[in-house]
Amino acid sequence: MAVSAEQMSGVRNVAVSKRASIGIAGKRQSETPPLDQIDQLLGAIYDGPTESPPWQTAMARLRDMLGAAHVTLMLRPPSSDSTGVMINTGPTTTQGIQSYETHFFAADPFVRLAEGDVFSAEELIGPQWMQSQYFREFLEPIGVRHLLGADIYTKDGIECRFRITRGPAAAPFSAEDKSLVRLLLPHLKRAIQLHARLDFLECERALFAGAVNRMLLGMVSFDQNGNIVETNQEARRILAEKDGIWLSGNNLCIESSQESRELQRMLRAALAGTGEAEGPGVVEAMAVTRPSGRAKLGILVRAIPLGQWSESRQRPAVAVFLRDPEANAAQPSQELVRRLFGLTRMEAQLALLLTEGYTLDEAAEKMNVRRNTARTHLRSIFCKTGVTRQTMLVRLLLNSVLNLG
Description:
- The chain is flat and about 85 Å long.
- The protein is α+β, with helices and mostly antiparallel strands and about 400 residues long.
- The protein has 3 domains: about 5-200, PHY domain (Beta-Lactamase); about 215-325, PAS domain (Beta-Lactamase, 2-Layer Sandwich), CATH 3.30.450; about 335-405, Orthogonal Bundle (Arc Repressor Mutant, subunit A), CATH 1.10.10.
- Strand 8 and strand 9 (about 250-255) form a beta hairpin.
- Helix content is about 45%, strand content about 15%.
- The protein has 14 helices and 12 strands.
- The strands form 3 sheets. A 5-stranded antiparallel sheet has the order 2-1-5-4-3.
- The longest helix is centred in the middle third of the chain and has 40 residues, at about 175-215.
- The protein has helices at about 5-15, 35-45, 55-65, 95-100, 120-125, 135-140, 175-215, 235-240, 255-270, 335-340, 345-355, 360-365, 370-385, 390-400, and strands at about 70-75, 85-90, 120, 145-155, 160-165, 215-220, 230, 245-250, 250-255, 285-290, 295-305, 320-325.
């Protein structure tokens, strides 16, 4: 992001003309660091979305530069419906944070600030600030005297609050301090927008990963160099059994030498097919024999083509999907079946038993009901679901959203 001449002038004023001030511990604070340190601070702001908690490094740097007691970023301010999300740098207590999140946020007069500017409490509220309930009952007991703040708003509806404090022994925040914070605001706003985008993508990834796991589909992804990037829960289960296939370092190993050569050929072909920016990518499949005598594992290899602007060689380039035909999927709850198809409790139980492969007589025995009673329930199920045969009913249930529950 370009920095205007006016902003650069403000930073130079901070770096050159700021007088030493008294810190919270009574020590003399040195002049604000030069522009190379401010550059490091901006870098920490843009690195912040990848930290956990985010922006810890940037806020610690800013706290040192300003001789502050606390630097706090409220990513989601507390409300009557939520405690919000606050990131604090400086001495805090769980009790102090909870008291703000559950009570004092409602008494905080330092909210909804005009975007792009930085205010001290006295500038915004006036001399009566120190007589307010919020100051006397919350800030003063935790050793806060001076408060500097700015608010950040995005077009997506994000509202964040940025607050910096000093103790009673420290000097008030100067115009140069405010100029520095004002310079940081547009960069922090962009970093917050990046964080929101990354959070959205992570939520989407977790959702799809959970669905794949519930479908008992193992997945191993490889980067362009042939190194394993990630394995999901089901893949780890299959590979841990070492029944015909296992993981050794960055290699998928197969018991059968012939099948091993075939898998390596498929992987090489898929990696060679990832250079294209568009297209469905290479897809091949094979079966892996298991020495235990269990049914063969199914393997599908799919190339993941590079995106138009992809530059990293560490991104997933090939996905290997593993399917164990003998894996036992978690049984959908009767409540899900009942609500999805409008069945009674007994009808839902019967439908699930038929889906598991039981005959009508076996299902009746497990339900401890007579065969005629089971047939009556089955006719009712047919009527409600619109099918006419047990095979159609089983197919309907297996192809429904039940496996995603």
